[in-house]
Structures are given as C-alpha cells and as structure tokens.
Amino acid sequence: MGSIKRALLIFGWVAGTLSASSIFSFPAAASGSGSLPTGPTPQYISTSGSDTTGDGSQSAPWATLAKALSQIPQTVNQDYVVNVAAGTYAEGACFTRFTSLGSYSITITGDVTTPANVTFTGTCAAILPVTYSVVSTSTTYGALAVGPINVVLQGIKINVTAGYGILAFRGAVITIDRDTVTGNTTFGVLASQGGTAYLTGNVTVQGFVYVGVAAWFNSSGIISGSGTVTIAGSGAGSSGMLASSSSHITVFANNVALVISNVQFGVGASLASIWQDFGTSGGTISITNSSTPSNSAVFNGTDNSSISTNSPVTATNFTNSCLINSITYCEMSSTRTFTNIGGANTSQNSVAFLP
User: Fold this and answer.
1) What is the domain range of residue 220?
2) Tens of pLDDT along 74-112?
3) Domain-located, residue 32
4) What is the CA radius of gyration of the chain?
5) Domains identified in the chain, total number
6) Measured between alpha carbons, how far is 124 from 285 in angstroms, rounded to an integer?
7) How far apart are CA 96 and CA 146, in angstroms?
8) Max CA pair span of the chain
C-alpha cells in the first residue's frame, strides 16, 4: 500500500480565530486528527478582499485563490495554507504548475462544518496534450491538480455545471476532507494516470452522470478516517464508484458509512482493477435505489478484476447482486440486508462468493 501515500495527507488547520473587530468572516479553526501544517504564514482570501491592495494577510486578504496560489513557489518545499472566507468564488482550484518535495502540501481550508459556505463555481482549463480519452481536451475541472503535487481541499464546495468536479492527474495526490462536490458533472471525483484521490470525513459527491468516485489508468482511490461518504448519482448509466485500467480503490470502512444511491451500478472494477473494502468494525455500506434500473447490479466487474467487502452491506432495488464476466471475482460480506435484489450473474470463468 506504500504507493497510495496514505500517511502523507491528513492535516489540521492553522487559521486562528478572528478578532471581533475584523471585517472579514473566516471560520473558526478546525480540529484535525493529524499534525498541523507548519511553514510560511498562512494566506487569506475573501470576496471582500483585493488582489491589488491586499497582501494576503488576515486583515488585508486577497480576493481570489489564483492570487494566493501565485505567491507559492513552483517547488513546494514547505507546507502552505490558504484560508478562505465564506462566499462564492467564480474560479476553479487549479494546481497545474507545482511540484511537492516529499510530503509537503498546499492546503485550502474553508468551513469544515458547512462546506457550502465556501463555494467555488469556476473551472480550470483543459489539459493538453491528453493521452487517454477519459480525460478530454475540451473538458474543464472544478479542481485540478497535475503532476507530483500534494493538495488538501478542506471544507469547501465545488459546484460546477459541466466537466469534472475534481481531478487528480499524472501523479497528483488530492485529499478531499469534509468537502461537497456537486453539479451536472461527468465524473464527481477522478484520479487518472497515476493520480490519487483520498476522501476523509463527511464528503458528499452528487449530480454526476457517469461515475461518482473513480480511479483510472494506474491510479488509486482511498476512503478512510471517520464520517459519512455520500455518493448520489443521476440514475440509469451512472456508477457510484469504479476502478478501471489497472487501478485500485480501497475503503477502510472501520468508522466510515459509505452511502451510495440513485445509480445503475453500485461499485465496480474493470480491466485488471480492484475495489476492496477492508472494514472490520463500525463501518457500513449502503447501496440503494428508489426504483430498480434494468440490467443493474450492486457490484459490477469485468476483465480480470476483483470486488470484495468485509463491512455489512445494505442494498435495495438492483436486478443483480454481482454482475461479472471475464475472469472476475466478486465477494460480498456475509452480513448483508437485501431488498428486491436479483441473484449473481456470472460468465466467462468468473466467480461470485456470497456466503
């Protein structure tokens, strides 16, 4: 699991509480389970700030995240923190020019109690050139990290109406900590071409038309920590989670409630990939629909892949429990509650194990 870099990315918040006389509204400091970032003085941004007359301090914040990021050197050799005041920012969270040394990161902190108070509605430009069709040259991204950079998005809402919500691309690691990702997106959260997406705390991903949380082309997705991860799709054709093309999604569900709804396929793995839940106590997985989509499945896999869970599973309204083919393995916890779920559908030397 060393390649997943789990130990790199849990950070607290160093922002202090504003004095009563401050004209800018920054949330109170969040309590984190990991060590606090240390390094340069944190920067601040506010919708009432100025990129011209501000200096990025708490009393004279910048107006945009882009301005704050422009103050950070290309080589990230310390931990940098940007605190974001309540408001709506018509820009994307774009990390396309940075390289982290070791585990050093850039942390963007909003309101971990109510992420909707700090909303980003803009997008980052398309990536050129692109090798794989899963990342289109015409696609835009609410948050984008490219290359060997560690990014922590904490207590913010990404609200975009097209493209992808969050993309960790070509070796980037993005921690999604108590965030909301919403809008009419193709992917809610995607790690591609060696990227890693790490979800922790209460996270909501909703409104996507294809996949809520995906790992593609030698990439990793991780859900850990504690809290509720809510993934709500748009019905027929959508999947809650999917690992594809030699990728791995891991759920450490000891203290996590994974809640997936309104999808044709709950979780899946394809093209030599793995979706695996390591939960041993306290975690739960719920995959439900209000009605039953045709040719739907709780677990869906193909082409030398594997799907398995240890946590209790509750599932409602799917035509198949496991829908797998081409030497694929599907294993479901013996602790499960099924309502209106069809049997396993296996073909081409595939195996479903439902004790």
Assistant:
1) 75-353
2) 999 999 999 999 999 999 999 999 999 999 999 999 999
3) no
4) 20
5) 1
6) 33
7) 5
8) 69
